[in-house]
Description:
By secondary structure, the protein is α/β, with parallel strands linked by helices. It contains 17 helices and 22 strands.
Amino acid sequence: MGNAKERIESGKAVLGIEFGSTRIKAVLVDETHQPIASGAHDWENQLVDGIWTYSLDMIWDGLRDCYRKMTEDVQNKYGVAVTKLGAIGFSGMMHGYMPFDGKGELLVPFRTWRNTITGEAAAALTKEFSFNIPQRWSIAHLYQAILNGEEHVDKIAYFTTLAGYIHWKLTGEKVLGVGEASGMFPIDAKTRDYNRKMLAQFDALPAVGKYTWKLEEILPKVLVAGENAGTLTEEGAKLLDPSGRLEAGIPLCPPEGDAGTGMVATNSVAVRTGNVSAGTSVFAMVVLEEDLKAVHEELDMVTTPSGDTVAMVHCNNCTSDLNAWVGLFREFAENFGINVDMNELFGKLYNKALEGDKDCGGLLAYNYFSGEPVTGTNEGRPLFVRKPDAHFNLANFMRTHLYAALATLKIGLDILLKEEKVKVDRIYGHGGLFKTKGVGQGILAAAMDAPVAVMETAGEGGPWGMALLASYMLQKADGESLEQYLSEKVFGGESGSVMEPDPADVAGFDAYIKAYKAALATEKEAARTMPL
């Protein structure tokens, strides 16, 4: 406690804050990278006029509340106030669309990664670039707005992501970390900057030519991990801490996306390492030795915070439907006057799933709260189905929903690992799905047919990863890579708790996916041929 208190009083503690889908969380770390205080604010996106969004008031109220709770945690634990910090880093949900005019005013409500409204633009850009542009990427949102003839496009002076927006308002710097930038527009692995050929291709598109801006002029500047990305301004300090106690002048590292912070938090930035983050959405990241042989719409090509090429399978849906069913069981218990601890309920139900048939006994679930581009589904339609002769019991029901949480991820990973034959030495799991020991971890091992590790520290998640990036900027030695810094100074050889795939689970998940894809194809064909 003494060292932590001294670190805070001397202004050397480092803060990471991440804007997740359902929670904004702050983690304060000491010089050994250990968390010493935290704060969190729960929030939820809203569907407004068909668009998944968070309002600006929600963003700033949430940030201030999260920061305030972190300072209260410090006060309660150490009896001191936070007035200065060694460094700060902000991260957030990748992708999405926040366009601003020359006065810094947001032109349309924030369009998050969750929207599946850019299919036409994504397909056109993928064809133009010979490079997969998913629907949630910022450039797809911009081009769709152009194709739609939206009036605001002519007024755009700058567009960025949520993390980039927060960083800009607190520092005045229009920058992004390269990992976050790689979810806005394709990155050239050699220059670790936007792909100049593709920038020119975009500007040359007929629909784009009528605008006075050039794409490069309205994109954030790209920075790599370890670079200084500006300092907290007086105005920024007041935005973050309205009490006025926080001093200006604190250095900030490049803002990153939740994919990048997940890689850092699991020590997965080296070639042939990977991680799976499973929460509201789920994504797998694998750092590549060489380029893929083909373009796959199910695979994104992004980068680590240092700019190394990463293949990413991103699925819009993971635990939302599963959580809703667990909530239903809680409501059932409460009707009998039983107060249930949610952590205990999740643990009981998750472990019950292990008793189920390996192929879920003929049950199927589709967890699509929102559209799912991996399977070509444009709108959310959560669905649970079974045949009359299915083995319908609680164990199979829970196993089905755990499989469903990772089903679309497995479809993409099969392309990466089986078709492209990408080699992975280790995979780390982190996020809410892995909180119940051995269950989500075992299901993921079956999905990938590969060993999966979970670290104790991974529970701190993205905000801790962001704090590590800020610490790296502050403490790195000359020439020390992010990979070296994490392996030697943060993790010290820790490899986590490893689970090998159970062959029976692998075969069962494969059988489930076969039925899952067949039923989905039948449904799509029925929808296609259905008379209007």
